[in-house]
Specification:
There is one protein chain. By secondary structure, the protein is an alpha+beta fold. It is built from six helices and five strands.
């Protein structure tokens, strides 16, 4: 069975669960070799995975194992800024203030994308069982609320944003009251893309 782009069914995220460019195609192939992630074939078509905004006492999460990579490569600046630009365009169309890129949230998002590609997963739980809240704590971001969208297999920022905006829960994250954002993007050895958006409001 062949794989297809996907965004997993929306889940509530809390302490227990988190829940055309030919040049870009060439770039993805080069990045696939650079990142060295394992190939992932997703059997569920047309799925997206998002976590609703949550408020959690970050001090209650406890220590966790380190992420798979301590310093994974960031997504290309043009890709990250393009996704954030698309997010802010959707917000501006509804009279909402723009979200601001945050380096710590981008690190958390990138680590999760890398982890998902490496371990053949698409989930809000990391391969070590970490939740979104714990991953954001790890990068030293002190937050009041946090949310996450993930997706698999979409080739471009426009493609993945279109999928997220067609899902009520993921659209709610994009249009939420959170003020900061980080983008993650990693590729499996087969060139498939794993996208992560992390949204937060500082404490």
């Amino acid at each position: 069975m062949t794989s297809s782009p996907g965004i997993d069914p929306l889940q509530l995220c809390d302490d227990s669960k988190c829940g055309r460019w030919e040049r870009e195609i060439d770039m993805r192939k080069r990045l696939a070799g650079f990142l060295g992630a394992l190939a992932v074939i997703l059997m569920l078509p047309n799925l997206v995975h998002g976590a609703n905004p949550i408020t959690v006492n970050s001090a209650a999460t406890g220590p966790m194992a380190q992420a798979v990579r301590l310093h994974p490569p960031a997504p290309p600046v043009t890709v990250s800024s393009t996704v954030i630009g698309l997010v802010n365009a959707e917000r501006a169309a509804r009279g909402l203030p723009p979200m601001v890129a945050d380096a710590k949230l981008e690190l958390a998002a990138q680590r999760h994308s890398e982890d998902q590609a490496l371990h053949q997963l698409m989930s809000h739980l990391g391969s070590d069982g970490s939740t979104l809240a714990q991953r954001v704590d790890r990068v030293g971001f002190s937050w009041r609320s946090v949310a996450e969208n993930v997706a698999y297999g979409y080739a471009t920022p426009t493609d993945v944003m279109t999928a997220w905006m067609l899902s009520a829960g993921h659209r709610a994250n994009i249009l939420s009251a959170n003020t900061r954002i980080g983008i993650g993007l990693a590729y499996g050895a087969n060139g498939q893309a794993y996208w992560t958006q992390v949204f937060a409001t500082p404490a």
